[in-house]
Amino acid sequence: MILVNTETIPGMQILEVKGLVQGNTIRAKHFGRDIAAGFKNLVGGELKGYTELLTEARREAIERMIAQAQQLEANAIVNVRFTTSAVTQGAAELYAYGTAVVAQ
Prior knowledge:
Elements: E1 2-3, E2 14-28, H1 31-43, H2 48-71, E3 76-88, E4 91-103
Parallel strand pairs: 1-3
Antiparallel strand pairs: 2-4, 3-4
C-alpha cells in the first residue's frame, strides 16, 4: 500500500477514487509514565514514554486506515493526514485519514 501526504503520486496516475478512509485509536496515559513525566518536567528532556505511546497510536491508526482501503480494493492512499484530540482527562484520540485510490 502506497501512502502519501500529497494529492498525487509521482510517476503514477490515479485511475479511480475509492473514497475517504480512516483509522483511529484512543489511548490513555499510563500511571508509571505520568510519574516519569513529572520528574522530566523538573529537569527537562524528552518524555520518551509519551513518545512511544504516540508512535504506537499512530501505527495502529495507520494500520486501520490501510485495512479499510484494502476492503475498497485500493492500492494507495493520498492526502494522508493525522489529527489528535483530547477525549477525556488522561486519554487522547489519534485519527488518520486520507483518500483511497487505485493508482498505476
